[in-house]
Amino acid sequence: MFSTDAWTRNALLYEAARTLPFNRALADGTLPMPAFRHYMIQDAHYLVGFAQALALAAAKSDQPGYVVQFAAAAAAAIEVERTLHTDFFSRFGVSTEEVAATPPTPAAHHYICFLLASGFREPLAVHLAAMLPCFWMYREIGRDIHARASLDNPYRAWIDTYAGEEFSRAVDAMIEVTDVVWAEAGAKERAAMHAAFTRAAQLEWMFWDSAYRDATWPV
């Protein structure tokens, strides 16, 4: 099936993301606050784009069950973005004005545009493959961080959100539906699914790396 094959093909890329300095430092509590603030602000921008990409998946779907699944996931992404504003931003000293004044970085902008272009241009199967790493890699790296983080980690409140069962069920549901559409896809579409999955996994790596380096537009 697609999910097993895609994960195996990209296992080294996942490991590279898991062991990034950002994720290692987040787990051991030594992540510099500017890097974490950078990550939160960019995540707020990204979540809006990701919700739009999920809404496009709902619009592409012919099956009512899929429409409900993707629309609900889009609403959940917006709810997480709102939680950032109402909880974590105030907890870590980020103002709404700062978020509004900070544009998406090259990594965030590229990732958002990639997902939206996928939603507008690609068939549903390819679009789902493009979105899957955000669900799946986030969960697996989050679980790894959660398992290693101490109770007095300054980012513990954020880290605990990784362990939510509701999100884990949503990830499993996305894996399942992507495998279903894979079974119905032709050879060309399957190749495009793998290419989309790998590109999204690379962008996941870039998103964390960009936050650690506090990367902005060079010109």
UniProtKB/TrEMBL annotation:
This protein's pathway: Cofactor biosynthesis; thiamine diphosphate biosynthesis
Pfam families in the cross-refs: TENA_THI-4
Gene Ontology cellular-component terms listed: cytosol
Keyword terms, alphabetized: Hydrolase, Plasmid, Thiamine biosynthesis
Catalytic activity: 4-amino-5-aminomethyl-2-methylpyrimidine + H2O = 4-amino-5-hydroxymethyl-2-methylpyrimidine + NH4(+); thiamine + H2O = 5-(2-hydroxyethyl)-4-methylthiazole + 4-amino-5-hydroxymethyl-2-methylpyrimidine + H(+)
Enzyme class name: hydrolase
EC number: 3.5.99.2
Top-level taxon: Bacteria
GO molecular function: thiaminase activity
Signal peptide location: none
InterPro entries in UniProt: Haem_Oase-like_multi-hlx (IPR016084), Thiaminase-2/PQQC (IPR004305), Thiaminase_II (IPR027574), Thiamine_Salvage_TenA (IPR050967)
Domain Thiaminase-2/PQQC: residue ranges: 21-213
Any one GO BP annotation for this protein: thiamine diphosphate biosynthetic process
Family statement drawn from the similarity comment of this UniProt entry: Belongs to the TenA family.
Task performed by this protein: Catalyzes an amino-pyrimidine hydrolysis reaction at the C5' of the pyrimidine moiety of thiamine compounds, a reaction that is part of a thiamine salvage pathway.
Name of the molecule in the record: Aminopyrimidine aminohydrolase
